[in-house]
UniProtKB/TrEMBL annotation:
Residues 218-228 have a biased composition (Low complexity). It catalyses: pyruvate + acetyl-CoA + H2O = (3R)-citramalate + CoA + H(+). Residues 9-303 form the Pyruvate carboxyltransferase domain. It comes from the Bacteria. This is Citramalate synthase. The lineage of its organism: Bacteria, Bacillati, Cyanobacteriota, Cyanophyceae, Nostocales. Keywords: Amino-acid biosynthesis, Branched-chain amino acid biosynthesis, Isoleucine biosynthesis, Transferase.
Length: 568
């Protein structure tokens, strides 16, 4: 828990710049604006919006934010130092930076002599001049500067004197933050810790001039008098950290840097970024705030973290990592019976924080690894009162284990497990009775799509129904025939749809005699549920799952009607 006296850390999000350097991630201007506003809501004080001048999208993004600014965050424009042997005032990219109209600009420059001579193909002296000239020019135009020391750690390891000279150039020309970058992501935490301590000590000795005194009257965010950013009167810039995840150390390295004195942490939502990604803010923020007692965002904003993570993954169209620490669907999912039994008694036994602190929630998973505690917890979540003394509880557990050993999997098919439970307790509603089905498929040479015809036999309230329907495949035809047969009795079926269908071959070595598991996801516009079927016949497995999907939808509808009746 943070208090007024908790040390302040400044978060800097680069999802919209370094995050978009991830392979497979591409966003429109509208996507960038939606993400920026979500990060603003989350309370991130610095949001790097992109590199105006690098592409037209980023130019327009900053213009749009000038029209409709963010509420609290400083939007930051990113750019390199000027090119070798030019002047900052004539560098077109720096004019684009000025046109972006941000109060803060991040300039990245070279710290590693190898990069100066190999990538820039210039002299070490000219690189120092590029850093100085660029920062001085932007300062003269009223901008506040964050200096990203690219390849800082590699540069410092190879040539510490030169690396420190680059920082000295940034300090002398007026940078307010020096951000040490582990650009290649190859540094380990003990090295980060040592080097950051060296820099904190060295910059204390290097510090000169009067920095950060300006209210520049610029900016695309709120009134600068309300700015959350410190206006350091100190001549010594603050240190920041920017880490990459190539050694899977990005979060650990950022934390090591903070513990060694860094006051700004750069990262991205969900760790998106070039190659293996950047430090994941969704892990960093809770670690820094809940474990180390730093103040980053408010407790209330912290509870929005899970939602923000999922929002960003949705906008960038990448499937969320269900096993991501803190914000993943499985971050607080308990499967092993021993775990569930203990968590039910006290969540501290298997949870390092309360899921609600980051807006996540505890889940109990049902599987062959379950004990009675899983079954009882699941029953409770279905609104079923089940006592562990009841013989039925043990029977349900046994049935679950038997079915899982036959190939069923209930952790992803909770609707089928709910039906199994109702069955065992003698309360499974019989909406209809299935009597059989037939499917006929045509695969005609030269025809692009196959045609399938399904016939189903059902009974509802003792009345036999025979119905047929076509579909572009056998499962679609079966689903259509079942709905057609039932819709006159249960008109709500018209609102159900089959939203996903997954097949898994369970014992592939037996070839075409292999068992098949089918998972069917269904929905009614408000809820979604998943059912499972297993058979050596793929159509039979599909039929079981589709039938249970319809049955569970009808159960939900009847429960909702009963709840309305009970409340009126
Ligand atoms: C560590 C990081 O993540 S830094 C950010 C990296 N992000 C990106 O590169 C994404 C956006 N980049 C782009 O759109 C393009 O690369 C641009 C517009 C910046 C430049 O495009 P081009 O002018 O066609 O150059 P190109 O991409 O081929 O090469 C990069 C140039 O920048 C130079 N450069 C690299 N770092 C710096 C620096 N810190 N300061 C000045 N120049 C630099 C390189 O030496 C090279 O110059 P050259 O063309 O004279 O050889
Ligand atoms: C600046 C930056 O993104 C890096 O050095 O990794």
């Amino acid at each position: 828990m943070t208090t007024n006296s908790s040390p302040q850390l400044w978060l800097y999000d680069t999802t919209l710049r370094d995050g978009t350097q991830r392979e497979g991630l591409s966003v429109s201007i509208e996507d960038k604006l939606r993400i920026a506003r979500r990060l603003d809501q989350l309370g991130i004080p610095f949001i790097e919006g992109g590199w105006p001048g690098a592409n037209p999208k980023d130019v327009q993004f900053f213009w749009q934010l000038q029209e409709d600014p963010l509420k609290q965050a400083e939007i930051v424009a990113f750019c390199s130092t000027r090119r070798p042997n030019s002047t900052a005032a004539t560098e077109p990219m720096l004019q684009d930076i000025l046109a972006a109209g941000t109060r803060w600009v991040t300039i990245f420059g070279k710290s590693w002599d190898l990069h100066v001579t190999t990538s820039l193909k210039t002299t070490l002296e000219e690189n120092l001049a590029m850093i100085r000239d660029t920062i001085e020019y932007l300062r003269s135009q009223g901008r506040r500067i964050i200096y990203d020391a690219e390849h800082w750690f590699d540069g410092y390891k190879h040539n510490p004197d030169y690396a420190l000279q680059t920082l000295e150039a940034a300090i002398a020309s007026g940078a307010e933050w020096l951000v040490l970058c582990d650009t290649n992501g190859g540094t380990l935490p003990h090295e980060i810790s040592q080097i950051v301590q060296d820099v904190v000590r060295a910059t204390g000795e290097l510090g000169t001039g009067e920095l950060g005194t300006g209210d520049w009257g610029l900016g695309t965010s709120k009134d600068s008098s309300q700015s959350p950013i410190p206006n350091p009167q100190s001549p010594i810039p603050q240190i920041g950290i920017h880490t990459h995840n190539d050694s899977e150390m990005a979060v650990a390295n950022a934390i090591a840097a903070v513990m060694a004195g860094a006051k700004m942490v750069q990262g991205t939502i969900n760790g998106y970024g070039e190659r293996c990604g950047n430090a994941n803010l969704c892990s960093l923020i809770p670690n820094l705030q809940l474990k180390l007692g730093y103040s980053c965002i408010t407790e209330d904003q912290l509870t929005q973290l899970t939602e923000a993570s999922r929002f960003v993954s949705e906008v960038v169209n990448l499937a969320p990592d269900e096993h991501a620490p803190f914000v993943g669907l499985s971050a607080f999912a308990h499967k092993g019976g021993i775990h569930v039994s203990a968590v039910e008694r006290n969540p501290l036994t298997y949870e390092h924080i309360q899921p609600e602190q980051v807006g996540n929630h505890r889940r109990i998973v049902i599987s062959e690894q379950s004990g009675l505690s899983n079954v009882l917890a699941k029953a409770r979540s279905f609104g079923i009162d089940l006592d562990h003394q009841k013989a039925e509880a043990k029977q349900i557990l046994q049935r679950l284990k038997d079915l899982e050993s036959e190939g069923f999997q209930f952790e992803a098919a909770e609707a089928s497990f709910a039906l199994l439970m109702h069955e065992a307790l003698g309360g499974r509603q019989k909406f209809f009775e299935v009597k059989g089905f037939q499917v006929h498929c045509d695969l005609i040479e030269g025809k692009e799509t196959s045609n399938a015809l399904a016939t189903v036999k059902l009974a509802v309230d003792g009345k036999n129904i025979l119905e047929a329907a076509e579909g572009n495949g056998p499962v679609a035809a079966l689903d259509a025939a079942l709905r057609k047969a039932l819709v006159n009795f249960y008109p709500q079926i018209a609102t159900f749809d089959l939203t996903d269908y997954k097949v898994r071959i369970l014992n592939g070595h037996t070839g075409t005699a292999a068992k098949t598991r089918v998972l069917v996801e269904s929905g009614n516009g408000r809820q979604r549920w998943t059912t499972v079927g297993v058979s050596t016949n793929i159509l039979e497995a599909s039929y079981q799952a589709v039938v249970e999907g319809l049955e569970y939808g009808l159960l939900l509808h009847s429960q909702a009607e009963a709840a309305v009746k009970a409340s009126s």
